[in-house]
Amino acid sequence: MPVSSFPSDATLADVGEFPLISALTALFEQGEHVLVGPGDDAAVLRIRNGHVVVSTDLMVEGRHFRRDWVPAEDVGARAAAQNLSDINAMGGTASSVTVGLALPADLPVKWALDFARGFAAECAKVGASVVGGDVTRSETLVIAVTVLGGCTVSPVLRSGATAGDVVALCGRQGWAAGGLAVLGRGFRSPRVLVEAYRRADPPYDAGPVAAKAGATSMIDVSDGLVADAGHVAEDSGVVIDLRTGAFEIPEPLQAVGSALGADPLQFVLGGGDDHPLLATFTRAKDVPAGWTVVGSVLAAGDDGPRVTVDGAAYEGPVGWTHF
Amino acid sequence: MPVSSFPSDATLADVGEFPLISALTALFEQGEHVLVGPGDDAAVLRIRNGHVVVSTDLMVEGRHFRRDWVPAEDVGARAAAQNLSDINAMGGTASSVTVGLALPADLPVKWALDFARGFAAECAKVGASVVGGDVTRSETLVIAVTVLGGCTVSPVLRSGATAGDVVALCGRQGWAAGGLAVLGRGFRSPRVLVEAYRRADPPYDAGPVAAKAGATSMIDVSDGLVADAGHVAEDSGVVIDLRTGAFEIPEPLQAVGSALGADPLQFVLGGGDDHPLLATFTRAKDVPAGWTVVGSVLAAGDDGPRVTVDGAAYEGPVGWTHF
Question: Minimal Cα–Cα distance from A92 to chain B, Å?
Answer without folding.
Answer: 10
